[in-house]
Amino acid sequence: MGLVRLRIRELANARGWTLKEAADRAGVNYSTLKSYVQRGALNTVDLSTVYKIAQVFEVSIEDLMEILED
Fold first, then answer.
1. Residues 56, 25: Cα–Cα separation, whole Å
2. Per DSSP, what are the bridge partners of residue 4?
3. How many Cβ atoms are within 10 Å of 18's Cβ, its own excluded?
4. What crossing angle do the helices spanning 47-57 and 19-26 adopt, rounded to 10°?
5. What is the number of structural domains in the chain?
6. CB-hemisphere CA count at 13 Å for 61?
7. Which domain CATH number covers 9?
8. Which domain holds residue 36?
9. What is the pLDDT along the chain (70 residues), one digit of tens a residue?
């Protein structure tokens, strides 16, 4: 099973947003977004949440993800 990392912190920092602001703008639960950032390597995510996060940053899901391990 592959591991990915979501580039949430970098994208939020580039826009001058806190993680809370990013969660609010994406319409996702702050604790979920924060857990995605803190865990670093993820093997499972809620795809609808990831889609919302990608939309708020105006990037594709592929650009939001960094593949760590195949």
1. 7
2. 42, 67
3. 11
4. 110
5. 1
6. 9
7. 1.10.260.40
8. 3-69
9. 578 899 999 999 999 999 999 999 999 999 999 999 999 888 888 999 999 999 999 999 999 999 887 6
